[in-house]
Amino acid sequence: MLDKNILKSLQSRVTKTSSVLLLVLWLVSLSFLAKAQEEGYIVSVVPQFPQLVLVEQWQPLLDELSQRLGVKFELETPENIPKFEIDFLEGHPDFAFVNPYHVVMAYESQGYIPLISDGSRELNGILVVNANSDIDELSDLEGQTIAFPSPNAFGASLYMRALLAQEGLNFEPIYVETHSNVYRFVFLGQAAAGGGVRNTLSKEDEDLQNQLKIIYETPGTRPHPIVAHPRVPEALREALSEVLIDLYQSPEGRLLLEATQLNQPIRVSYEADYQKLDSLNLEDFVVIQDF
């Protein structure tokens, strides 16, 4: 069952004038959680990193959430971003950690609801080259090969490719599945440049970081959020959000959050934080791969 502190927090929202009615509504909502204790909820994470790394990053947080909420959370780490996209477009995961433009795709296809994102930073796509190369500006990449995680990785690929096209740069894109692979392709000389984001580059070994240099950066946007399918009870969505925000209050909780790119959790919404991305006209650069 729900942690007593969470239940107390939820019940504190009840006003004096309508306490009985609102309390009944909350308890009805909470009754749906009994089913979740047996079957659990699927949490899918965009594969910016190899699957084993994602498990190391996310499983401790989900274990903590399960303990606090009394609800089973099952982690899924799709093998690549296109497979991840097909899953949420079909409404498979109950919760997902998605990139900013994925929010638009998930909202329009299934009505997924953004809950929590990191309020301590913006998401900036970066273009990196080998630190020992003579490449210093975009024009040096004319006709060259550029590595990207996947077509629809937002800052690292989708937004980046749209901006490079606006700059009139001609290049050969290759897609190598993860941000980690991008950085290694560039380091090994298998691509002249590669698209990533500052946050994933900062998680690589320092030796690898020192072998790369950033020559271009996209404007900032609100970073990846956790989204919930509308079939998830509102009471659970609310309780999950409150627990994530509460974790920030302890050093142990902050370590769990930092591992999953949720350094300083804040509430977000589609209308306020992500709907504007639909106006970037990125449709021509979106690629949906079937399996």
Number of distinct beta strands:
11
Helix-and-strand structural type: alpha/beta
Rounded to an integer in angstroms, the radius of gyration calculated over CA atoms is 20 Å
Shape: globular
Poorly predicted runs? 6-29
Largest sheet: 6 strands, mixed
State the strand order across the main sheet: 2-1-3-10-4-11
Task: Tell me the helix content.
Answer: 40-55%
Compute the average pLDDT: 88
Q: Can you put this structure into words, describing what you see?
A:
- The protein has 291 residues and is α/β, with parallel strands linked by helices.
- Helices cover 44% and strands 17% of the residues.
- It has 13 helices and eleven strands.
- It has helices at residues 4-11, 19-31, 33-39, 51-69, 81-89, 100-110, 154-166, 179-187, 198-202, 206-210, 234-247, 251-259, 270-274; strands spanning 41-45, 73-76, 95-97, 113-118, 125-130, 145-148, 172-175, 193-197, 212-217, 225-228, 265-267.
- The strands form two sheets. Strands 2-1-3-10-4-11 form a six-stranded mixed sheet.
- Helix 4 links the parallel strand 1 and strand 2.
- Helix 4 packs across helix 12 (251-259).
- It is globular, with a radius of gyration of 20 Å.
- Residues 6-29 have low confidence and may be disordered.
